[in-house]
Write a structure and sequence with these properties.
With 92 residues, the protein is of the alpha+beta class. It has a domain of 64 residues. The chain is built from 2 helices and 3 strands, in the order βββαα. It has a 3-stranded antiparallel beta sheet, with helices on one face. The model has no long low-confidence stretch (mean pLDDT 89).
Amino acid sequence: MVYIRRIGIEIFEYLLVFKKQIYSSYLIITPSKGKKSLTEDEVNQAGALAMSGAVATIDFLLGKKLDKKTKEIVRKFENIREKVLNYSSKSK
């Protein structure tokens, strides 16, 4: 069983019950600069991200492994993500 909840304006949490244990994680999603609240689309995307985290946790707990093709996609994504983070930290 997975619960997704929003706490206040910025916090999105999942609670996962698996084999009588509770697993939890949260995301902090802030409104765009100059805005006081998230748009409906941003709220929906944050909920989807939280659900993805819950599913990844379930996969890990079940011992599922990524196939080679998926591992390569993840590697490429992480490389791009790292470049973006490095670029944005240099531009500050």
